[in-house]
Specification:
Among the domains are: about 45 residues, Uridine Diphospho-n-acetylenolpyruvylglucosamine Reductase, domain 2; about 100 residues, Enolase-like, domain 1 (2-Layer Sandwich). It contains 12 helices and 12 strands. The chain has a 5-stranded antiparallel sheet with strand order 4-5-8-6-7. Strands 9-10-11-12 form a 4-stranded antiparallel sheet, with helices on both faces. The longest helix is centred in the C-terminal third of the chain and has 18 residues. The radius of gyration is 19 Å and the shape is globular. The termini are far apart.
């Protein structure tokens, strides 16, 4: 690991001021420290956000909740209002790592985590995203766990966040603070696909940090389903989060569905949402929605199986949401 200067920020302003060129933000550190050990990321300054006042709070906000980016995954799972009101989020968070990791990892860190791609996250590979290669080695190499959507992009690694698909399905927003002040945006708009800069995963500018996740009024019904883990504590092969607004006769008024583990960003599938609108949720309509979503898949040489896995995750997430989740 490269030597670095360590700074502890007491406020948002302190953090923003400290995050100059060559600096990175540290929250739980469960992802960042591994990347630093592998010399994937070699910052000259590490800015500790754990001491920033208010980032570890869960507070009521109107009909919803304002969750500090420094709140740990374990703390969220221990909060009865979050678990009861937003089951899709709770179910997604239960898939994150091990108990030890969940007690350290933060919600903001989960949103900003780098890809778990073998080629990117380990020293010794020439990787376009790392900036030490001219192409994505997964495209013609080991791509068993790579993307099946967005594969025309220069990099086919999948996004690491398990929480993001659920937050997108729930219509959550993010608060971001920087030198120009604070702004809010939908979680869905936080993530970016860039052909010009494959290393860029989100809209954060230099000196900006995610400070809060803002959840609105709980969705009528929601659920997350994880179809397959590579190992009991590993990143999911595919997951799906669904939030349904139900009308009379148990017909779907609107749906929001997002997939994880299948694309370089959390992948919202509006074709599946449209396929459910105005219909009653049955195994047949849920399967038809999954069919509509998978129509856009373009798997690589070793991961065609993920189309079926994602199809299963989406179908089951919709069915679980319609019946009020599995809890």
């Amino acid at each position: 690991m490269k030597a670095f200067t360590y700074k502890s920020a007491a406020s948002e302003a302190d953090a923003v001021a400290a995050l100059g060129p060559g600096a990175v933000a540290l929250a739980g550190g469960t992802s960042l420290l591994n990347l630093m050990k592998e010399r994937v990321i070699e910052p000259s300054v590490v800015v500790n956000l754990k001491s920033v006042a208010g980032l570890d709070k869960i507070e009521a906000a109107g009909d919803g909740w304002k969750i500090g980016a420094g709140v740990t995954i374990a703390a969220l799972l221990e909060n009865p209002q979050v678990v009861k009101g937003y089951p899709a989020l709770a179910e997604a968070l239960e898939t994150v790592g091990t108990p030890q990791i969940r007690n350290m990892a933060t919600l903001g860190g989960n949103l900003c985590a780098k890809t778990p791609c073998l080629y990117f996250s380990h020293d010794g590979f020439a990787c376009l995203k790392r900036g030490n290669g001219n192409s994505c080695p997964a495209k013609d190499g080991d791509n068993e766990f790579s993307a099946i959507f967005g594969t025309v992009m220069p990099c086919v690694s999948v996004h690491a966040s398990s929480a993001s698909p659920a937050l997108i399905a729930l219509g959550a927003r993010l608060r971001v603070a920087g030198s120009g002040g604070a702004r809010e945006l939908p979680v869905e708009e936080f993530f970016v696909l860039s052909k010009d800069d494959p290393a860029r995963e989100n809209v954060l500018k230099q000196g900006e940090i995610v400070t809060h996740v803002i959840l609105g009024k709980p969705a009528g019904k929601s659920a997350t389903y994880v179809a397959l883990h590579k190992a009991s504590h590993d990143w999911p092969t595919a997951l799906a989060s669904a939030a349904l607004d139900m009308g009379e006769g148990d017909l779907v008024r609107t749906a929001r569905i997002c997939l994880g583990g299948v694309a370089p960003i959390p992948w919202r599938v509006q074709a599946a949402e449209a396929a459910l609108a105005g219909k009653k949720v049955t195994p047949e309509t849920a399967s038809a929605a999954a069919d509509a979503a998978m129509a856009g898949a373009a798997p690589l040489s070793q991961n065609a199986y993920k189309v079926k896995v994602a199809h299963t995750a989406l179908k089951r997430a919709v069915l679980l949401a319609a019946r009020g989740s599995w809890k």
